[in-house]
């Protein structure tokens, strides 16, 4: 009985607001102003319900860590931006050294910050990450825009030169832009960098960093972070639909 009564009330409310929308072009201005205030208050609550419902009911599920891992993987990770909802889903303008969350920050050398960031819900059939991150760049006088992600301590626990660290990205851009990835390894007072430019074709990209690079002292590594660098991204929209990391041992020959 209760469900039937609620259904009748919803039908009545829908008819009422449908009539109000039809009459809006002819209502006296004072009455129209009051209806607008009522509609805005109602829309705020409806939008809030839809946002929560989309997060809970949409696929992939919030908090998902599901993604393919190569054979022999001993550590894997999806950063929280692509896994969980941010407390503040959007930022504008975005200044340099802006923290998105405890793991990720944005850096750039543009004096004008005509840049916005927004977390969005992934709903495509090919999506494995619950969320994506979209940045829109308008006027841009600088040379680069960088997303810096701190990797957790588990990423460098037991790290040795036989390890390969792999990053998999799903990136969509409004127009072509040069993208460089950089792995930064802090060991003692020194830091080593391994860079790799992403291919221009395709949205699904895998980059592999070989830890046998250079004279890296893996016994002293105390920090790892990953940079995703966009060169001169003026008047562009960039969506990072997923970003995951895995670590595995190089196959012996």
What is the compact description of this entry?
With 253 residues, the chain is of the alpha+beta class. The protein has 2 helices and 13 strands; from the N terminus they run H-H-E-E-E-E-E-E-E-E-E-E-E-E-E. The strands form 2 sheets. Strands 1, 2, 5, 6, 8, 11 and 13 form a 7-stranded antiparallel β-sheet that branches.
Topology of helices and strands:
Blueprint: H1 2-23, H2 29-57, E1 73-77, E2 90-91, E3 98-99, E4 104-108, E5 115-121, E6 131-137, E7 144-150, E8 163-173, E9 178-187, E10 190-197, E11 204-210, E12 221-231, E13 236-249
Antiparallel strand pairs: 1-13, 2-5, 3-4, 4-7, 5-6, 6-13, 7-12, 8-11, 8-13, 9-10, 9-12
Describe the oligomeric state of these chains in a short phrase. Answer: single chain
Separate helix tally: 2
Categorize the overall geometry.
elongated
Q: What radius of gyration results from the CA coordinates?
A: 24 Å
Average residue pLDDT: 86
List SSEs in N-to-C order.
HHEEEEEEEEEEEEE
Distance between the termini: 72 Å
Number of strands: 13
Structural class: alpha+beta
Low-confidence stretches: none
